[in-house]
From TrEMBL:
Origin: domain of life: Archaea
Pfam families tied to this protein: Glyco_tran_28_C, Glyco_trans_1_3
Cited Gene3D superfamilies: Glycogen Phosphorylase B
Protein name stated in the entry: Glycosyl transferase family 28 C-terminal domain-containing protein
Homology family: Belongs to the glycosyltransferase 28 family.
InterPro entries linked to this entry: Glyco_trans_28_C
CDD domains: GT28_MurG (cd03785)
Residue intervals of the Glycosyl transferase family 28 C-terminal domain: 256-349
């Protein structure tokens, strides 16, 4: 079976879970092709997949820790990315896949439908109109247009795959809203992560250990620097911080002895397995990775980013970690780190989530589903 996976490149979470599915399908002997763009495409090529450059679908606009979805949609229309449908149709005509898996890349789903190709959509949010709540009359109108548009789009795929734990354990549950007919074709696959807990050898680090994936560039820099300050307050806890390629670690000055700064990790799973706490924004994929490895989280969701805010809220409500914000003091951050390291109830809950992820085996669940559906055709 020839499979085309089309990836939204806005954030590497889409990329990592698409790679997980691609590896699973390829291991079963299927011919896997991947369409992506930007750094996402580079990463996919390094993993050895047949990759094709596709047009980006949405331009994200924001500042000071806030995503402005209204301006993002306007910028997307101005750049004319939606004309990329023609390019995607040509790609599908040239590669002739038996099926398309589209990870939040709606042009791919629409293009597959117009060519009569079975399509499976991966999403972890369906209530995009949440971005516009409480932002004036024009935003309310735009929110309604977005709601109607996505209601129609979610009718198109043969299956909608939610890369999360099944209800009631679903972390992205506050971001899901479908009509009844769409719910009938929803699969909660379980986490789709690039490497399982048992496949991973832990990095050699001194424990307790905290992995921080916040990054030190742009509007997240204050949190990054605050974590360094927190590390200096308690030398018994060790930290690995990912600064991102745009930050020179030497520009950060003298660092506490218990801090290691890395620009980038191509494989962060060994560090995750060696960690007692993960500090991250509110991205869904990082949360799935941490929970699958049984590690509690401290989440700093982007301001006014409703999806991340909801994810972080569920993490706290379900006893899987803590939701903090940009104004949280270093003293309170350290207090919460110690709590997650020392409190047995968090360790027990996270062990349950790790074992559940192993049992669900998300990539295998997706492969089994699409093989069965394609066999029926």
């Amino acid at each position: 079976m020839r499979v085309m996976i089309l990836v939204c490149g806005e954030g590497l979470g889409h990329t990592s879970r698409s790679i997980a599915i691609g590896k699973e399908l390829a291991s079963a002997g299927h011919d896997v092709h991947v369409g992506a763009y930007g750094y996402s495409m580079e990463l996919i090529q390094r993993k050895g997949f047949k990759a094709y450059e596709i047009p980006s679908e949405i331009t994200l606009v924001g500042k000071a820790g806030s995503l402005n979805m209204k301006r993002s949609i306007v910028a997307t229309f101005k750049r004319g990315q939606f004309l990329g449908l023609i390019k995607i149709r040509k790609l599908l005509k040239r590669t002739r896949p038996d099926m398309v898996i589209s990870d939040s890349y709606f042009m791919g789903m629409v293009s597959a439908r117009t060519r009569g190709i079975p399509c499976y959509l991966i999403v972890n949010q369906s209530n995009m109109e949440e971005f516009f709540k409480g932002k004036g009359v024009s935003s309310k109108i735009l929110a309604e247009i977005v709601r109607i548009s996505y209601t129609g789009l979610f009718k198109m795929p043969d299956k909608v795959i939610i890369p999360d734990y099944p209800l009631p354990h679903t972390v992205c549950r506050k971001n899901l809203e479908f009509q009844d007919k769409t719910w009938d074709k929803v699969l909660f696959s379980g986490p789709l992560i690039g490497k399982t807990y048992d496949e991973t050898t832990a990095e050699e680090t001194e424990r307790p250990h905290v992995l921080c994936t916040i990054g030190g560039f742009g509007y997240r820099e204050p949190i990054f620097r605050k974590v360094i300050e927190v590390a200096g307050m308690d030398g018994s806890i060790n930290y690995t911080l990912l600064s991102g390629p745009g930050v020179d670690p030497e520009s950060l000055g003298d660092l506490p002895e218990n801090v290691t700064i890395l620009k980038f990790i191509d494989d962060q799973f060994p560090y995750m397995k060696a960690s007692d706490v993960v500090i991250a924004p509110g991205g869904h994929s990082t949360m799935m990775e941490a929970l699958s490895f049984g590690v509690p989280m401290i989440s700093f969701p982007d301001q006014k980013h409703s999806e991340q805010q909801n994810n972080a809220l569920v993490i706290e409500e379900d006893g899987l970690g803590k939701k903090l914000d940009y104004s949280t003091s270093p003293e309170d951050i350290l207090k919460n780190i110690r709590l997650l390291i020392d409190d047995e109830k968090y360790r027990n809950k996270l062990t349950e989530m790790r074992e559940m992820a192993i049992e669900l085996n998300g990539p295998k669940a997706v492969r089994s589903m699409v093989e069965e559906l394609q066999k029926g055709r």
